[in-house]
């Protein structure tokens, strides 16, 4: 077995492999108990109206606070959760928690009217996915019109026809749908007119390049397609005032990124209102 680790570029010793597999298993056995131990949390990142500078929504992003390892990134444990099927209970927890906290958030800033939740391929592929969403909405009394589910091209492309049916069923509930990381999936564009979508999210790799012109033609093409098909556009990964300007210049009205706020606990972003004096 010869492999190079991408991060360090150094060659792995054979003896490290079992150890790495063991680490993975250990991480997995911890992950199984993470929810009941209260180690999972949601952070939120504001989604801004770039014209007014006001938040219009918030994306929920999962965090895992491991007692020994510290904060484990979703990029690390979501793939593990997908491979093991754990993403099903975890994904349901995310949705319910986003709705529960979202209900409090909706009133806290004028114009804040949308909570976005990421959905994984395995979740979306389940026969009972739409029922699960409906049930969580009912249980939490979260207004469906304020929920946006984020899917990726990869999820949709697996089986476009059945994905379209499922997306339509979600829209019938009142929920809106965003296509996340748009443009990174290298998938055929021919499916785009048929998708019952509300929002295209331009991947941050295009946003960064738009400010210096490199990816500007791609961003313009995305804007033009979105306009033709009637989709809103949200730019991801806005890190500088230059990024904001570049996106406004191409007519993109919404964005999120470190320039506005890093993902953080809801109360840190929008403090709970202090109860007024009793009358
Ligand atoms: P995503 O849905 O595309 O989320 C955007 C990621 O970019 C987040 O990373 C966010 O913290 C980060 N980000 C936001 N603004 C900026 C910026 O200005 N610059 C840079 N460099 N990065 C920025 P995070 O939270 O680590 O999540 C990574 C990915 O993990 C997400 O990508 C999503 O695919 C997945 N994920 C996160 N939470 C969940 C979840 O609850 N369920 C599922 N299925 N996947 C999730
Ligand atoms: Mg997302
Ligand atoms: Mg994204
Ligand atoms: Mg991404």
From TrEMBL:
Signal peptide: none annotated. Residues 24-277 form the EAL domain. It comes from the Bacteria. This is Bifunctional diguanylate cyclase/phosphodiesterase. It comes from Deinococcus ficus. The chain holds residues 442 to 720 of 720 of the full protein.
């Amino acid at each position: 077995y010869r492999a190079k680790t991408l991060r360090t570029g150094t060659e792995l010793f054979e003896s490290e492999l079992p150890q790495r597999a063991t680490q993975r298993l250990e991480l997995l056995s911890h992950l199984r108990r993470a929810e009941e131990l209260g180690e999972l949390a949601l952070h939120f990142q504001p989604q801004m109206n770039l014209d007014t500078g006001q938040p219009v929504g918030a994306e929920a992003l999962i965090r895992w606070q491991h007692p020994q390892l510290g904060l484990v990134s979703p990029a690390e444990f979501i793939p593990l959760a997908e491979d093991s099927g754990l993403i099903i209970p975890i994904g349901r927890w995310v949705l319910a928690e986003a709705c529960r906290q979202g209900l409090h958030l909706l009133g806290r800033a004028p114009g804040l009217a949308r909570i976005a939740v990421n959905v994984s391929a395995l979740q979306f592929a389940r026969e009972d996915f739409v029922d699960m969403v409906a049930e969580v909405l009912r249980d939490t009394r979260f207004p469906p019109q304020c929920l946006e589910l984020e899917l990726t091209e990869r999820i949709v492309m697996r089986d476009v026809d059945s994905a379209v049916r499922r997306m339509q069923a979600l829209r019938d509930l009142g929920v809106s749908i965003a296509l996340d990381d748009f443009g990174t999936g290298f998938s055929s564009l021919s499916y785009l007119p048929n998708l019952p979508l509300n929002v295209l999210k331009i991947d941050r790799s295009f946003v960064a390049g738009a400010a210096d012109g490199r990816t500007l033609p791609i961003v313009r093409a995305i804007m033009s397609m979105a306009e033709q098909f009637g989709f809103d556009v949200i730019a991801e990964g806005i890190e500088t005032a230059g990024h904001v300007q570049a996106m406004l210049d191409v007519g993109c009205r919404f964005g999120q990124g470190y320039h506005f706020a890093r993902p953080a606990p809801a109360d840190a972003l929008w403090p709970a209102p202090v109860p007024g004096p009793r009358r």
